[in-house]
Structure formats: C-alpha cells, structure tokens
Design a protein that fits this description.
heterodimer; A: about 475 residues; alpha/beta; Rossmann fold; 20 helices; globular; B: about 325 residues; mainly alpha; Arc Repressor Mutant, subunit A; 3 domains; three-stranded antiparallel sheet; about 60% helix; DEAD/DEAH_box_helicase_dom (chain A)
Chain lengths: ~475, ~325
C-alpha cells in the first residue's frame, strides 16, 4: 500500500514523501475508517482527502464554513489542473445549481456548507451517487466549546447519516481535547481513529516586540521590512490599517506590496494571490481574510501589527510561514495598553443579553438584519435553540473567548518559553527543549541580532521591475495586448 | 465609493437626496426615475448596488460638513460655491456609452471578457495551471462553452487581439490603458485598486471607466456584429442590452402599442388601475418616442390627478430635452 501511495503522490502532486500525519490519514480513508485528523496549519491537510479521491472512485464532499474558503479551495484545485471540482453555494444561480445536482457524477470534489447540504433537493441528489469521503474541514466549528462555533455545523451528524459516505474525515488544525471529544460526539463517531500531530512548528521562531506608542510601532514595522528576508505577510485588525500601511511600505521601502481584505473584488483577490504566489509581490498587508487556501511554501515571516482575535487565529496565521521547512519568524508588535483593544474586538459580533432578549421577543423582526450579532442569533434560532440555551451558549462562548484571550496575553507577556505555553494551551504534553532558535524570552529588544542569528537578516534595497516594459506607470494598451497574446 | 463621488449628482438646482440613493442602488419606482431623469443622473442607475443607506447618509453628512453642499429646505440640497468649484477643478469621469437602465448586466459581460482573455492568454502560452480570475460557475461555464466553439479558429489569439485593438481605438487612450492594465493573462495583471491609485481614480470612477468601455463594446457588437466574430460569440448583445422597462411594464406597454385603452389593458392583464398607470408613466418616461398625447386620449379610467400631473411633468421634461 505504502509504495503505491508514494507513487500516486509523486504522480499527482510531484512530492516524493508525505508530511507527518498525511500517510496515516490517507491509509485510514482508503480503508473506510472514520478519522479525526489534527494537523498543524501548513502541514498539507487538503492532500489527505485529495489523494484518496484520485485513487478511489466516487465523490468527495468537503464541508466548508465560508463561501470564500470554498472558492479558494476550488481555485487551488483548478491551479493544480483539476477541473472536476465545484463549490455548490449561493453564488451559483438556481439553474447552475440544478445543473450541478444532475451532473454530480462528473465531479470529483464538491465543496459545500452544511446549510446547502441539508436542503432536501441536495440531499436527494447526493444520495443517488457513490460518496467516497465526507470531509469536514475546520471541524472544530462543530464544537460549542470552540471559539469558532457555527450552529449550522450541528446538522452534520444527521447529514452524514443520510449520505452514508464510505469514510468521514474530520480535519482541523486547532482543537483542545475538550473540542476533540465534542467533535466526535456531535458527529456520532465515537470510534473514529485519531491522527494527531503537534501544533508546534519548530522552524518558526516566536518573537514579540513591545513598542512605546503607535508611531514607534509604525517605525518599527518599516525597519523590519527593510531588514527581513522576503516574502512575508503582515496582519492587521482593520482594512483601513492594511491599506494605509501597504501604501507606506511601497512608498518608503520600495518593495512590491499589496493590501488584501474582504472588501476586494474576487478578481482583485485572485490577482493579488497569483502575483504573491509567483513572487511579483513580496509583502501582503492583510486582514484575517487572507490566508485561507494560500499555499505558498517560502513565506519567511508573518508579522502581527495588531493582536489576532484569538490564540487559535494566531496559530493559523503564523502557520502560513515556513511551509518549506526553512527557518522563518513570527513577530508580534505590541503596545503597553493593547489588551483593551483586544477586549473590544472580542465583543464584536457577539450578541449582548439585551439583543438576545429583544430578538427572542420578535424573531421575525430581525430576520434580514445584516448585523453579525443578529445573523448569529438567526442561525441559532433556525437550529431550534431556545432563549435560555442561547444565553447559556453565549456565556460559554464569551468565557471561552476570554480564556483564549487571557492565554494569548500571557503568551505575549511571557518571560519563559512561549512555544511551551503554546503547545500546553492546545492540550499537548510535549516538553519543549528551549534554545536560541525557539523563541524570544520576554520582549525582544535586539531584533536585528535575532534576525542575524536566524539567518533571516537581509537588507532590502529598492526593487527594479524585472520587465521595464510592464511598469504600470508607463504602460500603454498595445503593449499589454502584445504581452498577453504574443 | 468615496464622499466626493456623490458630488456629480448635485447641481445648483435644489433636489432630494433619497432618489440619488435609490438610483445608485437600482430601485425602480416612478418617482425615483422621474427625479433621476430630471436631474440628469438616470444613466447611473444600479451603479453602486452595494451602497448602504448608512454609508450614503455618512457621505451626505460629510459633504455638508465640508460645505460642498447645503440644505435649501428640509429635504432639498444643492451645491455650494465651494462644491461647484470642486466639480470644476476635479471633474469626475464622465461616461459616454454606459446606461445602467438598459445594460443591467455589464459586470457579467466584463467578467466574461476578463476570463476569456485569461483563458486565451494562458492557452497561447501553453500554461494549464493558473488561478481563474472569475470563480462564478455560470460565467466559467459560458466562457468554457465559447472557448470550445472557437478554439480551432486559425490564428485565434491574433484575431482576438485584433478585435480588442479595434475596440481600444474607439476609446480615449487613457481609458483603454486603464481597461487593458486590468486584464489578467500569462504573467500579467494589475488589481483595480493598484490601477485606481496610478490613474488617480476613485474606486467608483474606476468601475465606471470599465463599465463604460464594455458598454461601448456591446453597442458595437449590436450595431456591426460581423466586425466582431469572436467577441460577438462571447458576448451576444441581446443577452446584455435590453429595453429599460421591467417585464410587467413591457407587457402593459405592448398592449398599449396595440391600441388598447387603459381600462382594456386593466381587464386584459387583470391589473389594478394604479398599476397600469404606474407602468405607463414608466414607459412614458423611459421610452424616447413615447406618445403622451395618445396616452391622454386613451385614458378612460377614472380621473387621477397624480397621473395627469406626472404626465404633464414628463411632457415638460421632453420639451426641455428637445
């Protein structure tokens, strides 16, 4: 089996070996065993369902929480040359959805959200085809104990029973033991195999720099961009900051930089992704909308200009660095009074007790409210949660978020090994042997020395466009047509 | 959309702001359409479909705070002297071909064209692995069908390039440069945000530049289809150009053209008198050669002051246009 798997891996993906955890999961799937796979970000989780889909006949259904994530995954497959993939969601009009449902046999991969899968017409059509694997991506969303809980994921237990896939694969990068247990209970799969690999990414150095104030932080970022080996990603908590800093980096560092956030058109998002993937762009200033589906191996740094929304998000975001296994760095820039800002972010999108009361008094009034808080209440209501259950759940969620934030703040302010704290938070007993390639103890006051030590110091000079003809400042349409078609 | 994008909708004549918002959002009620036509911004119908009322109100407040517009009465506003000077110093992009009422699916046409260009460019460079710039399944499907039909055409890329060249020569060169730089192809592509910065357009103006260009192409395809064999197959003009009337209004208008009186139309379509009046007011406003006098003659419904007043207003408006 192993030899064949390696041959298939090389033939389909051009890799010569599996990353930790992949082979065990793939073997389980091929043997029809339900599996919970917890692999760190950047460990190649998608390959765990893609390879079996090429070896066995039948449809692989991937449940995904977000439309943008589905589209990214389909685009990623299309980039690999796979045309038999589709995202069944509200972006398809009625006739296109009907077409997909009547031609399911033509597809190898179908991405969808739980709400869509639960539709009678969708279920009926899917029950007519041979379903090889039901993949539940971001499986931690099913757990009420998790910070990313999505009520619609609760339907998946019943959906799985109706679809009767040969195997169910639950994938996540971050799940504490409590969340793991919850996932298996909610999907009624107590006997599922568990393949768990450490969340630790030894080739990423964890660093925190405390800046005196906002101006100092901005100056520190520009200095870092001058000195860091490229390419890299900088995360911001707002679209405006991402845009402003992208412009500043372009102007002051003369490094090809773009901003990326949820308000960009799909076309612009893909253009930026593509230019980043091909190396034309060196730095991306992004909100947390960036990264899902990004599979660039040589990202050397991830900087958090603002603190992430949770410890789980932090791990996901820094995990985009160093997928090629080479030394990389995660730097968090912090201010002495940053926790207040985080606490406010934490409350964003969560309904207050007053909102819950008002909603349950007249749910129909809030049916079409675009407010995220009411959207969440609508989802819970549709899933038949009572007012007291919702109140309790939100209280739990707030507590979980607080705990996650508290743990993250501890991580930021720690003077001992941050990596040890991180693996403990995610329920691992692993004992980290701290050395000078591991993380900064306390706040880093000599970042240049750190970068030199890690061999990530690289003085970036102004980049000259590789092809002067394609300089946007002098570009004329006849040149564009010539370049595109000739 | 940025605040000053809204200045183009104001003048020294007092006007209400709600019709501006509903026009941008694409809400088709007679009173909005009438106000938009009266103040000359009807072509911008549905050009900012995502704009929320909150954002719009914020922009209006900002314009007032910056003393670019001023209230004339409780609901009416006009440009201040400072606002007029701004419009002269920083004129917005003015469309020549675009009409949101008759071209409701220009975004789809543009996306189809962008994807087709990407597909052909990658095909020409023998590259099969790339991110498609459009993820919408139905657009991908249309382009795939088109590509299957045309891919055996001799010198395909060259011919397609010729058609695009022909199109760009019809536009001002700055507009062509902007539109072309936003194409994606083999190792090429600039995002609209980058382009807007380079060309000093707001995002809204950048969108209008693109929509106006694709509107020009569609009108050409309609007028001389034989000159554009590849583009015509990709963007059949009948799919993208339409009468400015909604389906139900069209049906009412068709009966009116057949010579039926208004009460006969009500009977035939089983509609209330008010609905038929609203349909015919819309037709009178939007169909250029609509005969208002005949409509008044054939009006055998009970007298309605609102209806006759609005018709007179349309007659007055048409006189000014003549």
């Amino acid at each position: 089996m192993s030899v064949d798997l390696l041959a298939a891996l090389e033939q389909k993906f051009g890799y010569y070996e599996f990353r930790p955890g992949q082979q065990a999961i793939i073997e389980n799937i091929l043997q029809g065993q339900d599996t919970l796979g917890i692999l760190p970000t950047g460990s190649g989780k998608s390959l765990c369902y893609q390879l079996p889909a090429y070896i066995q006949q039948g449809l692989t259904i991937i449940v995904s929480p977000l439309i943008s994530l589905m589209q990214d995954q389909v685009a990623q497959l299309q980039l690999q040359g796979e045309k038999q993939s589709i995202a069944l969601n509200s972006t398809l009009n009625w006739s296109a959805q009907k077409f997909v449902l009547t031609h399911l046999k033509n597809y190898r991969f179908l991405f969808s959200a739980p709400e869509t899968l639960n539709r009678p017409d969708v279920l009926a059509a899917l029950c007519q085809v041979n379903i090889q694997t039901l993949v539940i991506d971001e499986a931690h969303c099913i757990s009420q104990w998790g910070v990313d809980f999505r009520p619609s994921y609760l339907k998946l237990g019943a959906i799985r029973q109706q679809l009767q896939p040969k195997a169910t694969l639950m994938l996540t990068a971050t799940a504490t033991p409590k969340v793991q247990q919850d996932i298996l209970e909610k999907l009624a799969l107590p006997k599922a195999q568990k393949v768990i690999y450490s969340v630790d990414r030894p080739n990423i150095f964890f660093d925190v720099i405390q800046c005196a104030d906002r101006q100092a932080k901005q100056a520190q970022l520009l200095t870092l961009i001058h000195q860091l080996q490229l390419p890299g990603i900088i995360y911001f908590s707002s679209r405006q900051s991402a845009e402003t800093m992208a412009q500043l980096i372009q102007q002051q560092c003369h490094i090809p930089t773009a901003f990326y956030h949820g308000a960009l058109s799909t076309k612009d998002r893909y253009l930026i992704q593509q230019r980043f993937m091909t190396g034309e762009l060196k730095v991306i200033c992004a909100t947390n909308a960036f990264g899902m589906g990004i599979n660039k191996a040589d990202i050397r740094f991830v900087i958090h200009y603002h603190a992430p929304v949770s410890f789980e998000s932090y791990l996901q975001e820094v995990g985009r660095a160093g997928r090629d296994g080479h030394q990389s760095i995660a730097i968090l820039l912090t201010l002495p009074d940053e926790s207040g800002r985080q606490a406010r972010l934490l409350e964003m999108g969560l309904p207050t007790p007053v909102m819950v009361k008002a909603f349950f008094k007249r749910p129909d009034r809030f049916k079409n409210s675009p407010e995220p808080a009411f959207e969440l209440l609508n989802q819970l209501y549709r899933n038949r949660f009572t007012e007291s259950e919702v109140t309790q759940m939100l209280e739990n969620k707030r507590r979980e978020k607080n705990e996650s934030l508290w743990a993250f703040n501890r991580f930021v302010n720690l003077t001992t090994c941050r990596r040890q704290h991180l693996v403990h938070y995610f329920g691992e007993q692993q004992r980290i042997v701290h050395d000078d390639q591991c993380c900064a103890l306390g706040f880093d006051t000599a970042i240049t020395a750190t970068l030199e030590k890690l061999k990530l110091y690289h003085l970036n000079v102004e980049e000259v466009p590789s092809d002067a003809d394609l300089n946007l400042d002098t570009l004329e349409w006849p040149q564009v047509l010539k370049h595109i078609f000739e | 959309m940025i605040t000053t994008d809204l200045l183009r909708f104001f003048s020294t004549d007092p006007q209400r702001v709600k019709p501006i918002y509903y026009t941008l959002r694409g809400k088709k009620t007679f009173s909005n359409l009438l106000a938009a036509k009266k103040h000359g911004y009807l072509i911008y119908f549905h050009s900012a479909a995502d704009l929320t009322w909150g954002q719009f109100e914020h922009h209006i407040g900002q314009l007032q705070r910056e003393q670019l517009i001023q209230p004339v009465s409780k609901n009416e506003w006009c440009l201040t002297a400072k606002g007029q000077a701004w419009c002269v110093q920083q004129p917005p992009f003015l469309t020549k071909y675009y009409n949101g009422l008759t071209m409701p699916k220009l975004n789809v046409a543009l996306a189809q064209l962008h994807l087709a260009i990407q597909v052909l460019s990658q095909f020409q460079h023998k590259n099969k692995q790339y991110f498609p710039v459009v993820t919408d399944f139905s657009i991908q499907w249309q382009v795939r069908q088109w590509f299957q039909r045309v891919k055996r055409t001799e010198n395909l890329s060259q011919r397609f390039e010729q058609e695009l060249t022909h199109w760009f020569t019809l536009l001002p060169s700055a507009q062509s440069n902007f539109v072309a730089a936003n194409f994606s192809g083999y190792q090429f592509g600039f995002s609209q945000a980058q382009l807007a910065t380079r060309f000093k357009y707001s995002a809204y103006d950048g969108t209008l530049v693109q929509l106006d260009a694709i509107a020009c192409l569609l009108l050409q395809l309609q007028q001389v289809p034989k000159n554009w064999p590849l583009c015509q197959q990709l963007l059949p003009s009948e799919a993208f150009l339409q009468l400015p009337l909604s389906r139900s209004t069209k049906a009412t208008y068709a009966l009116f053209q057949q010579g039926l009186t208004l009460s006969q139309i009500c009977q035939s379509r089983r509609l209330k008198a008010g609905t038929v009046r609203e349909h015919l007011l819309e037709a009178a406003l939007l169909i250029p050669d609509f005969d208002v006098t005949t409509l008044l003659k054939r009006n055998d419904l009970a007298a309605d002051i609102y209806f006759t007043d609005r018709l007179n207003e349309i007659l007055e408006l048409n006189k000014h246009e003549c």
